[in-house]
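Hello again, I could really use a second opinion on something today. My current little project is about how a certain protein chain folds up. You're getting the sequence in one-letter code plus the fold written as tokens. Here's the protein in full, and shout if anything looks odd to you:
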Amino acid sequence: MNIYDLSDKAYTGKVSIWKNTKDKLVLEANPDGNWSNDDVEALYAKLKSLAKEHNATINLFKLDKDANELVMGILTGRGGHPYLAMIPKDGGTKAKKRVKLA
């Protein structure tokens, strides 16, 4: 299963890994970057090794912590910025809509 199948927010470009001022490893858009959604498992392995080496944390978003199977991918956040996320393989639970009762 591919992240492109599950989310319309999938990031389609390449990214680089940066350490920000809060000691978090983050992804930054870079056309010449080494990583994309096609090799996200290798990206996550690299992030883990860099986090241990530089005493930093990984900026990772988990949509549904109770889901059984998660798929990792790079999604597009506010302003088009990429971030690493784990979303449920089945697309997750859909939000309930508000219903006017009275």
About this structure: Residues 3-88 form one domain. DSSP finds two helices and six strands in the chain. Residues 40-54 form the longest helix (15 residues). The CA atoms of residues 26 and 77 lie 12 Å apart.
